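Appendix B. Raw example, untouched.
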Amino acid sequence: MNSFVSAAQIGAPPQATADEVVRLVDVRRRFGATAALDGISLTVRKGEILGIIGRSGAGKSTLIRCLNGLERPDSGEIEIEGRSIVGLAEEDLQPLRRRVGMIFQHFNLLAAKTVEDNVALPLKIAGVARAERLKRAHELLDLVGLADKARAYPASLSGGQKQRVGIARALAARPALLLSDEATSALDPETTRSILALLKDINRKLGLTILLITHEMEVVRTIADRVAVIDAGRIVEEGQVWSVFADPKTLISRSLLSGNRPQLPEHIAARLSPTSGSEAILSIDLAGPEAQGALFADLSAALPYSFRLVHGGIDHIQNQPVAKFFIAVPTRDPALKDKVQQFLKARSARVEVLGYDTDHV
């Protein structure tokens, strides 16, 4: 089963291809002694949704500012639709910026302008006639479900409606790339789901390339095709969303995923001994067909002992089953733990011995 991303693939400079909208090669940016970006190499293909996730201070905001030309890298290459933006004069950046739409965490709407004028603003700046830009604004408001709010002002809108206006404005100039900078962080969970569904719908209808900057794994899991994990200015892990969720390679990825995958209950984890106990507690990560097969029935048939399922379950990400289980293996046969691990690894599982239960009877 070709499930997981090889660590050797991380950080290698991407090779240019015709369908790339974004290409970064060894991009670096320092602020004094701090390396905000420390050799970022990344591509985003046409029609793809890429999620970039990391903790606060990891370099996400600097990366997005480099992509829209608001920040200049110290070195490296940044290409949008095959054109390098590094070193361009400000007047040369303006037409390129129209190919890059941007939606923000706090909406950034102009309070004194109506919804239709907010949406039409990029076209006004570009010199488009008022009738044409209002026609485009009304098309986009219909697309985002706010056709009846064209003459309203931002103060009368809910947070979700304001973000829909922000999305419509970002699409006004028909960009090739949409950048989303923590666009759902200020929204409640229900509104977040509706905004993510809207972005996915726009991606499908328009074939729009979207790059999401977020610290929320749930956002990435909901709509992204691929995910890149950034830490201390470096891409430390990258791959299809389901693959990274199934087998996170780095500690930062596992930490970010901790709220989205089953964890060993605290009362059990607290009593584990590192050396001895009546049962060994194993964590098992699986993805693909093996994740929903007769794993435990087959295990019991191959090794006729009483195994106990402690916790866990099966999820589906990008239509792929992704499972995490915790099982208890009796320690009365010293070789049994190793036999169980060999059996599970033959099924392409990642297995880890977490410790030994000292209290289970």
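End of appendix B.
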